[in-house]
Queue: 4 jobs
Job 1
Amino acid sequence: MDKWEEQFLREIVELDTNSDEKKNYAVCAEVIKKYCQEAGLEVEVFDSMHDGTPQPNVVATLDTGAKKTVLLCTHYDVVPAGETDEWKRPPFELIIEKGKAFGRGVSDNKGNIVAAVSSAKELIKKGTSKVNYKILISPNEEVGGTWGIDYLMNGPPKIRGDFGIVVDSGPEYVSIGASGVIAGTMTVRGLQGHAGYPFKFANAIHLSIPLLQVMVDYEDVRRKVESKFPAPPGSPHRTLWGRFSMTVYNAGSKTNTIPGKAEISFDCRTIPEEDVEDVAKNIEDFFKKAKEETCVEASLEFKTKHAGWGTDTENKYVRLFHDTVKEVVNPEIPICGDLGGNDGHYFISHGIPTVCYGTLRDDNNYHGLDEFMHLEDFEKTKKVLIRFAEVCD
């Protein structure tokens, strides 16, 4: 990583662009715009402005006059840092140590933004690109992409291309699909009151326990759902599979008060072949039976329904990209699907063949404490994007 790349990454990592608060989006977009212009790219900014909050999408273009355009998909929003005092290094400072860059979002996905822009910068300098590169740098990926890539593809900008690369995956494989995400909350209702008189009230925590015991069985239901797309290296299954996890529990406010409400949020991962609406209906049916079995008063609300996707492995651009990665990185690198979700389905929905590649190695702690990126993975990603543009026609 050269000094220009390091400073670019430093300036955007220092900005807390977490997807909950959505602060610093406009500032971050301006910084990205500045570095894109320095790289020699043409830059447009499309602000989706949702609920009075700026959500600027930066579109940086390397226009070579070629007939084919490749879309590079990246994002600058990050998940919240959580309890920052639990980090060994400040989450919103770029710390480089022993071949690693530390900071929230450095791998997911700000390092990939810099890699994409830097690859275009190098291609401009060399004059060797055989395609146009259009780098889409958006917010909202961590919460569904509606005001990010979805807005660019389906809103007024109506961005189009011949091939898509989601620069938001790992370097150990070329991904040709991603899981869908369904998130929601189950709310258990009781009756709030004084903890000294528990017999007079209905404790929502106590009521939720038998319901949760039944809902845990839905993990087994989802585990039996199998995809045709290979799972990433190191997975416990040969192909992608369905998953269900209860991830957040909220109840109570004081030790001397019987809680009248308990909220349990969940995350369900679908395989590329599934329709998220069908899976959501299946969750609703299982939840209804769980309520009937336990006689618990509860409701279910979905927060996110984000479709999975898969692409044709025989597509010429997919094969060429895989060949490029094997040439630049490792001839043994496989093709498989991603366990996580990403914005690639917005490309696929418009018939644009798509792959994923990037710096998100399994050990990076993205979404966790002390997130980091291997600098060698940054270089690999950049070199792959450069080489692909040179051989793609």
Job 2
Amino acid sequence: MRTVWVFGDQLHRGIGALADATPGTDRVLLVRSAHKVGSRPYHRQRLHLVLTAMRRFAAELRAEGFEVDEVDAPSMLAGLADHRRRFGDPSVVATEPLSRGLYDRLTTAGVGLVRSNQFLCHPEEFAAWAAGRRTVRLEDFYRWQRARLGYLMDDGGPVGGVWNLDHENRKPPPKGPGAADGWPAPTTFPLDDVDRQVLASLPGSVVGADPVGWWPTSRTQALERLDEFVEVALAGFGPYEDAMLAGNWHLGHSLLSPALNLGLLLPGEVCDRVEAAFRAGRVPLSSAEGFLRQVIGWREYVWGLYWAWPDHADQNALDAHEPLPPAFTGAAPTAMRCVATTVGELHDHGWLHHIQRLMVLANLATSAGVDPRALLDWMTASFVDAADWVMIPNVMGMATFADGGRMATKPYVSGGAYLNRMSDYCRGCAFDPKLRVGERACPFTTLYWDVIDRHRDRFARNPRMAQQVRGLDRLVDLPELRERAVEVRGRLAAGTL
């Protein structure tokens, strides 16, 4: 009997090697690696999600008639060796894993690999598209994906004659009483004995709040979350997808990334639902296009880059070496309301939407000169939807400019004015986003000008940053700003800001 080895991020009957497996002919192996579980101070909800989803998937396969071998082992390969000993060294196949390191280990261990269909663009297809290009930019990839997959296309062109409606999806949050109540809370899934057993088994190193059922741990729950998003939240997703409100952690976001990244949902079925809702006239084009751009554009783009650039995690173009701020981990309080709110939501849910990740946490880290690898390691442990293929391109390329512009055309840094426009975080904060010097100066505003000043020569050569560099020479208080920046970076590192 052949063994099909299924990993914890491939929990779907239709993925790769499992798609044509049959009970009685194939058994299924799932390995829970103690090394992986204990390798970092993971968010409690992340480990709970993965381990619970694996158990539920194993139960579903048994109900279908499969013999399932669930192994707790020191490492993935130790689990494989144990399985082989107990079952007479069977032939073992697996779907191509989502990890480069695991891919290499499986090849060495003699595991047969079946081509993955978990994404809409296989790494080989991405490499063929990227071959010969001087730059590998998201917008070019996204248009290629739209055209070849056929999403939101009419007569060979984009619906409405425009590829990208991002300009319509950057509204600041609504203001006034009740502004945070415009998006209904997603359904939660009640915890059961399986959830409680997993929670009781987690190592003492975990951080963050206990789960309350936000994250689907089975395909049935994931499909319910997909239905709810398309029917309830999708129409209002687009306009405010970049907005932040202290009183609402989810807004119109789908919350589907954890289910997608574990394989409980496949991107094609999600995109098909969104396309159908638009064609039926239930959602505006801006929301449908904005969401599809995240899935077939950004998500598949970072997946392709992960395989195309194996050295990406080792970059540090801005020579940044400051430690991770204690305020990020909750080890120290902070008077910065935007950071305190964001970190609090991360503690509670193990998730933040993309602008909080990029323009609050990564923005501050980049401006303060935080070591990009330290930020990468912390984010990888802290988010329920994290994986190396997600986090390495996002953090090293987009978030911190550690690759020097290989991925993004400019560093994503901003002063407090952006946060004041796109959130309500500045209201009641101890710092003033308009001030760059003095005790009440917003750290984001101070450090925005400081990071440009520290990297003046590099940024002066960047067409998208040259104007900001010229702006430095118009700052009459630049000497005072430099002094304030040294103080801010020191207090941020010490956890006293």
Job 3
Amino acid sequence: MYSQAKVIAGGLAHIPVVIAVFYFILTTFNKRALKFVEEAKTKKPEAKAVEPKKVTVSKTEAPKKEAPKTEAPKTEAPKTEAPKTEAPKVVKKKHADVPVNIYRPKTPYEGTVIENYSLLKEGAIGRVNHITFDLKDSDPFLNYVEGQSIGIMPAGEDANGKPHKLRLYSIASTRHGDDFNGNTVSLCVRQLQYEKDGETINGVCSTYLCDIKPGDKVKITGPVGKEMLLPDEEDANIVMLATGTGIAPMRAYLRRMFEPTEKEKNKWNFKGKAWLFMGAPKSANLLYEEDLQRYLTDNPDNFKYTKAISREQQNTKGGRMYIQDRVLESANELFNMIEDEKTHIYLCGLKGMEPGIDEAMTKAAEEKGLNWSELRPQLKKAGRWHVETY
């Protein structure tokens, strides 16, 4: 039996143990409580971190919603921009089938000259010839389409003993050739002549071509070029601005449009309007005039022919009549055609004609309330403005 004194003493002896246990429990609870608080604190920043993401997304998406505002001016652009989306598709579709570089400078085709004759009448200035080459022996066959060019490599060597470089010439015949058998190609070549130190200098390749004779062999490359091709549409309108031998591609177009035999051979029946502006120094320098007059007589509703003969005609100011003067005279009718998305404009000739044409177009456009500096790039982008000058 334990005495009361021993029981009391035993109880007191256990007090430190109880205190220790209580302290352990309290410490553990505090630690867990602190851990919970710390976890709560760390969770709050994570919750906030979600908010910035939403804000960031809204900021980056905002410009997308506002994008139409920046693009609006494009939709409010002049109506002349409308063809830009349609015309290029048509042009690209045609270009895919155009032959290019069948023969290259390192491996040219040697074509035989069939004919070479002058295109000028008595009293004309200079020398301009029509030259035709036989292609039937070419393998692969040298085929081409209207508006392309071929390269000519003149015989002989330059002053350094190297072969002459090739020159490009616009093709003046249709794909079926002048005799419609599909085996020839023709060029319209003016002999280049200029004065230097009191001496007359003749162009190397142009003189070579004007001098060659039937039966001669000539190195030919190509064909090349997609800038001057006709559109596929039969009801397209074709405006042609040419000076001198710039008539070459225009002759090909017009033969394709109006030569009866040519029309029978192809499946393209021109139903639009063709308008040729032709510039020459004298009447005797007008090229292919008999054919053009015949087309005019036979197709009065589809063909219009306007001539500018600088040394025989005067403009409204009393000066020489140039092609740009004719453009100004016909400004209203011309731009009525240009505003039609089916109209294509072709410019070919000496590079010096471009500034005059550009100035005339600017003035003509102003009379219609149009800005030519804005309209021309639109026509170019739409595949309706075609230029080949040299």
Job 4
Amino acid sequence: MERRREYVRFLLTFLFLGFLMKIASEFIHELGHASFVLMFGGRVLGMSISVEWPFTLSYTRWVLQNPSNIQIALISVAGILFDVLTSISGQTLLRTRKKIQPFPAIALFWLSFWSYLSSVVYLVMGAFCPFGDILDLICAVPVPRFWIGALGAVLLTVNTYSLSMILKGIFSSVLRLKRASEMVSYFWALLHMFFVSITIVKYGLPMPPAVTATVLALIFVWSYFTARWLLVTVSRLKGTEVKSELSVSTRQRSRELVVDDEAKRRNLKLGYAALFSATLISLILTGYMINQYVVTYSLVMKTDIEIDVTRFDLDQEEPTLNLSVRLVNPNRNDLMLRKIEFDVHLNQKFMEHQVLGQIPIVQPESEVSFYHVLSLPVDRMFTIDQALEEGRWEWRITGSGYVETLFGDTLLRFTTVSTRPPNVE
């Protein structure tokens, strides 16, 4: 019972410090921007540190008279630079000093982890789809995306292994070594699941629930085994003793099979060949799935759908809305929406549900616009009468575009808000 209480205390401390250190890492990132602004003679107008990340983001507002492109680039990349320096410093301290108390060790691990994650996401994702600081950097100075992505990949590989070894040492203070090594793999798998779940909470399900649940299960399994075998492979190359349950079983069986009998040795070689083939096939399938995941993620996150009210008429038997539909496709493939389904609200009250079935194809990196006339139901006139009395006309259109992907019907969610009073002649 006392052992279980110790586990619970450790888990609560681990999670609580993870939350606090996320806020601290956000401050360090924004401090990087502010420091370079002040160094160039500018003024920091304000700094907002998000405690609701990733639902809200931190930012720094600053002003600098006639900044050069180099200055803008350095200010943009300063947050990433501070993140990298913080992560490397924290990891170095944890790897070189063995007698750090558990509480500060956990805090320093989380600070190093969040700083590493922020810089790696900016660099790796920014190489494929520039955003935030990387977008500002590229707009100011034409830095090749390849080198940005290459730097991010190096930091991802080196820091992931280093942080895994640090985390294994922290877990070893309350768990046996073998269990601690397994918990590291669970940490990476659950963390991946956490970010996927947060994305779903923020943007909604991009596909049917059954398909989403299957994809989440596959993501968890692949995340766990990828982290597990990465630790085992790198540890073997370094000659350390980090082994997995599977590797222990394999070694024991290998010692039994390595005998003088030629037939058993042949079977062992065939087993290794089958294992290598299965690993190779799994690697190819994983690469294919990751590619499809990235393509679908880019489609969901980058595609823009807007339905705006351009005219509202009351001088007919039924009130009519003239809607402007705008589709923006920044991706490299044609965008073919099967349908667009949306709801119209006036002053937060439901008015009408519509489905558009014939959607024009949007060419890569282009946009199309078309118009749609919508008749509002007469039985909703009391909402319009109330809006006339209040003089408030807030139209809110929410819905989804449906597009076929590898994962089935994928939803491209959108929301547009406009204020359009009626045209009365």
